[in-house]
Amino acid sequence: MRQITLDLEVLRTFVAGVELGSFAKAAEKLGRSTSAVSSQLRKLEQQAGTDIFVKQGRGLALTDAGETMLAYARRLLDLNDEAIVAIHGSELEGWVRLGLQEDFGETILPQVLGQFARAHPKVRIEARVARNAELIDRVTSGKLDLALAWSDGAVTPYCERIAEVPMCWVGPANASIEQLAVADDPLPLACLEAPCLLRTAATNALDHAGIAWRLAFTSPSLAGLWAATAAGLGVTVRTPVGLPASVQPLAPAESGLPGLPSLSLLLHRSQAHAEPATLRLAAIMTEAVRSAVAVDP
Asked: How many separate domains does the chain show?
C-alpha cells in the first residue's frame, strides 16, 4: 500500500464541520467558500479510499470509517497545534482578562490557568468569577477579553457556542427525594438569587408538570447553594459539571421530578480580532470545557 499523507487543513475543515454540525458553518468559520469545503471533503474521501459520509435526510452522517477518521483527525490536529505552541509559546506576551461562571471556578479554571501559564509564562491573566449578567455586561463593555457564560438566548457580537450541557436535579449525596418532601407539601427548592437561568428552568418544569413547589433557600453564591442542598433543605437544578461530593444528581425517572432541557454554553469575546494570547486562552478554555462535559455523567 502506498504511503498517503493526510492534509491537515482538510482535516481541520472536517473536524470543524462535524463539531459545528454543518459544513456551511465550518466554511464561514474558516473563511472558505462552501464549494472549497466540498472539494476538501471529496479529497479526504479520496485519500481515505472509502466513504467518510453517508446521506442522512437532508444532511450527512459519518460512516464507521468516518468515526475512525474523526478520532485520528483530532489527535493529529492536537499534535500539530501543540508543536506550534511548543516552538512559539514562550513568545506570547500581554494581559488577558477572563470571566467565567462559578460552576467552572473550581473545576475548569485551575486546569486552564495551569496549562496556559506553563506554555505562556510571559502572559498575565486576570480571572473574575461572576454571574451571567455581570459577565455579559463586562465583555460587551470591554472590561473582559473573554467570558464563559450560560446562554439565555441573547448573543454578543463575537460569541461561539462551545458546548451543550444537560441540566439535572440535584439533592444530598445520602438522601432520597422522599426524605426531602413531606406528603402533600410543596417541593422545597434551593436556588441562587434571581435572575438565574437554572432557577427559572426548575420552576418552569415543575409548573408544567403540575408539581407544587416553594423556595426553601436562596443564596447569592454557589457555595451557599451546595451547603443548603447537602443539608437537605431542598433540591436544586444545576449541570453535572463540577458537582461536589456532598450532593448527587437525581434521575427524573426515579425521583418523579420532571425532565429538564439542556443549556448552551457560550464563549464571548470582546473583539472580532483578539490578541494572540486571548485566542490561545480561548482555545485552551474550549478544549477543557468540552472534555469536562464529555466525561461528566
From this structure: 3
Beta bridge partners of 170: 236, 249
Q: Are residues 99 and 144 in the same domain?
A: yes
Which range marks the domain in which residue 131 is found? 94-164+264-294
pLDDT tens digit sequence for 75-92: 888 788 767 766 665 567
* Domain membership flag for residue 2: no
Give residue for cell 490536529: 77
CATH number for the domain including 113? 3.40.190.10
The whole-angstrom separation of Cα 205 and Cα 166 is 14
Cis peptide before 195 (omega within 30 of 0): yes
- Lookup: cell for 259: 425532565
Whole-angstrom Cα distance, residue 50 to residue 291?
A: 29
Distance of CA 155 to CAs 133, 160, 248, 254, 270, Å?
Answer: 12, 9, 32, 36, 12
Verify that 83 and 148 share a domain, yes or no: no
147, amino acid identity = A
| Nearest-angstrom CA–CA distance, 28 and 54 | 23
- Do the beta carbons of residue 266 and residue 162 sit within 8 Å? yes
Rounded to 5°, angle at Cα 19 from 15 and 23: 75
Helices 109-119 and 276-295: angle between axes, nearest 10 degrees: 140
Give pTM, 2 decimals: 0.65
Question: Which residue do the cell numbers 453535572 mark?
Answer: 240
Q: Which pLDDT tens digit goes with each residue over 130-180? A: 888 899 999 988 999 999 999 888 778 888 888 888 999 999 987 655 555
Cα separations in angstroms, 128 against 19, 94, 105, 135:
28, 17, 9, 9
